[in-house]
Amino acid sequence: MRLSKYLLPVLREDSGDAQIVSHRLMLRAGLVRQAAAGIYSWLPLGYRVLAKIERIVREEQDRAGAIQILMPTIQPSDLWRESGRYDAYGPEMLRITDRHDRELLYGPTCEELVTSLVRGSINSYRDLPLNLYHIQWKFRDEIRPRFGVMRGREFLMKDAYSFDIDQEAARRSYNRMYVAYLRTFARMGLRAIPAQADPGPIGGDMSHEFVILASSGESDVFYHRHWEEGVADAIPDFSDDDTIDRFVSEQTHYYAATDEMRDDTREAELGDDLRTARGIEVGHIFYFGDKYSGSMGLKAQGSDGGVFVPQMGSYGIGVSRLVGAVIEACHDENGIVWPEAIAPFRVGIITVRAGHPECDAAAETLYARLGEAGVDVLYDDRDERGGAKFATMDLIGLPWQVIIGPKGIEKGVVELKNRATGEREELPVDDVIARFTK
Fold it and tell me: CB-based burial of residue 281 (10 Å sphere; 0-12 exposed, 13-18 middle, 19+ buried)?
């Protein structure tokens, strides 16, 4: 993509309304613009990041055996009355009435809707296990929607729902999602800590909140130093459930808890192994048994001819929230520092002197050949001074910058800069192309 043809409305100054780093940088780097309080339009650069995060989430859900569907954003209130949550959920749920005076709501989550769907679709234990997920916009009417996409009113969420014949099978489904979440965040270049958490209004007796560490995090996390080590290297695939169960059992042995679930006794036992940090929730998984299937009359015929109530779990990842959370964890004084897997573009090309024939020719060669090889490239071909181009490229945080200047071209080299480390090296154009296409 040529920057001269792209919509990238960067700002020189921070917005006075932005209170946290991710909100300030998302506005300055032209990722989003506010449409209304807590509701955002995603501009091209931000949407590319959102799409890459969504793709990774989808791929790991598919690998875990979950099946993608799409449920509506608007739900009938009668389903929530069946479960008893309609009045209990609180003012965060946006309640609306259509022209026929039917009560509807803009879904904040989908336990009731998916339970109703499965209730009309299965009859027997042979239809289970079943795990359905979708990636859909949700709405929660926050009283003071601040902090950009970290706590907006409208947000993109992946939510999955498992249905199993008994508690043992349901916990096995839970473990598969536990592993899927660790794999998902590791692929994004993030270290996620699964901390024991309060299930809140979702309910249930087992819940883990997946937290990434950031100095500007919203809550305190207490954890064993084990989580600072290479846990991602040991995450299993989904070929064997027994291996998954052993892995989860081993990991949950290591203490990690959010503030409301602290265990002073265990923390005292950890001694020097105890760590405390600020963290940001990016995912949450719940096992809640028959809380919804029981109250909503979901039943199936068992192998013995009797009737049983399926056991359920639900599993959420804040896809749009992750964009802000990653920025909170991955930035410096100059702007965003994207992990390579979710960066909007992998490589940015800068010509120091616009209009210099040899520099322009080298940039065009790089741009064409990298693009032909399937590498995501942003070429800053604007008629701007070099300093402005450097500032823009650092602000938007692409992992690699190729800097082309007259002195380097005279020597037959260009400069390759690593955005995360600041390290630079000089390479011939062909070697740069080989670096990103091998």
Answer: buried
- Cα separation, 267 vs 257, in Å, equals 10
DSSP state of 434: H
Cβ pair 194, 232 in contact under 8 A = no
The pLDDT tens digits for 398-435 are: 999 999 999 999 999 999 999 999 999 999 999 999 99
The answer to whether 350 and 414 have CB atoms below 8 angstroms apart is: no
Can you read off the two tokens belonging to residue 318?
């804040």
**Both tokens assigned to 122:** 């299965």
| Cβ atoms of 328 and 278 closer than 8 Å | no
Same domain, 228 and 158: yes
- Please state the pTM of the whole predicted model: 0.95
Point out the domain boundary residue: 284, 309, 336: 336
Both 331 and 354 in one domain: the answer is no
Task: Give, as one character, the DSSP assignment of residue 251.
Answer: H
Mapped onto helix, strand or coil, the DSSP state of residue 139 is strand
Alpha-carbon distance of 248 to 228, in angstroms, equals 17
Which CATH number fits the domain that encloses residue 408? 3.40.50.800
> Distance between CA 222 and CA 261 in Å, rounded?
9
Tell me: the pLDDT tens digits for 237-282?
A: 999 999 999 999 999 999 999 888 899 999 999 999 999 999 999 9
pLDDT at 197 over 90: no
Residue 15 main-chain phi, psi, to 5 deg: -75, 140
* 182 lies in the same domain as 70: yes
Q: Which domain holds residue 189?
A: 3-336
The C-alpha atoms of residue 181 and residue 281 are separated, in whole angstroms, by 12
Amino acid at 313: G
How many domains does one find in the chain? 2
**Would you say 269 and 254 are in contact if contact means Cβ atoms under 8 Å apart?**
no
- Report d(CA 334, CA 63) in Å as an integer: 37
